[in-house]
Amino acid sequence: MHILLNGETTATTAETLSQLVIELSLEKRMIAIERNLEVVPKSEYDNTRLCENDRIELVHMIGGG
Amino acid sequence: MTDDIFKVGTYEFKSRLIVGSGKYKSFEATKDATEASEAEMITVAVRRVNITDMGKESLLDYIDPKQYTILPNTAGCFNAEDAVRTLRLAREAGGWDLVKLEVLGDIETLYPNVVETIKAAETLVKEDFQVMVYTNDDPIVARRLEEIGCVAVMPLGNPIGSGRGLANPFNIRVIKQRANVPIVVDAGIGTASDAAKSMELGADAALINTAIAEAKNECLMAKAMRDAIRAGRQAYLAGRMPKRAFASASSPTEGYIWD
What we know:
The complex is a heterodimer of chains A (65) and B (259).
Chain A: E1 2-5, E2 8-11, H1 17-23, E3 31-35, E4 38-40, E5 55-63
Parallel strand pairs in A: 1-5
Antiparallel strand pairs in A: 1-2, 3-4, 3-5
Chain B: E1 6-8, E2 11-13, E3 17-19, H1 27-37, E4 41-48, H2 59-62, E5 69-72, H3 80-94, E6 98-101, H4 114-126, E7 130-135, H5 139-148, E8 152-155, H6 169-177, E9 184-186, H7 192-200, E10 205-208, H8 210-213, H9 218-238
Parallel strand pairs in B: 3-4, 3-10, 4-5, 6-7, 7-8, 9-10
Antiparallel strand pairs in B: 1-2
């Protein structure tokens, strides 16, 4: 399946957001995910199934003023 | 001074210095300077994770969210929609509801787009964010943002990263005199005297990033800013003497030995 991950077309075998987070080794990072412009709460990662062409934004905190 | 608490929204701080975490050479430098500043609140930016090059460490490995109040910002947003999306993501990431809203007008001046700022503030307040809002040094806009329900209004001293000090001290004072929420001077502070001056004008706090991060000795400048904020605040609370057109002798003008 292909998704649009942070603006890049990306192939993934993950079927849920939880699996995507593990695939990217981000389990321990403080991140947030937006799926098709809606923020997905962490509690919903298990239940959120990825679909072809889903637009996923995956963000974290960096230095800034 | 121990009971001089900086209250913003439902939060309380002993320090009136808010620091940024941008532009440092390393995470280590960010950590050391932030500790030296004795600030309790630090801004962070929200950005896409670099999927192909993750890096082993992240900012929050060095800046402990249990120790500091993390203030996510919307730096780089040029419209209300992007700013709101960014802060919704930040709240999900760390549970933070105290946020710094900034919507910029153009890349060259980094001046705020107040129209989009107002739109974003309205949405965020409705969604129960506690919004600290970066804006122009315009007393009318400042009041509007307060009316919307922002918990602090943060007028610029000068453009972001310029280090030029306070362009319009009169406006900072006017904004403060008419405000019922904390006023934070955000952007433009270049050195300790600018920070002290901001506080002497009555600002409740100041937000400083580049002046510390780009100093040759970041930790020493962080301490200078810490002390300047305290000195300026104390001078404001003490109530300064009036300015006079002419001299006024400091020693008694009677009892001279030649009288």
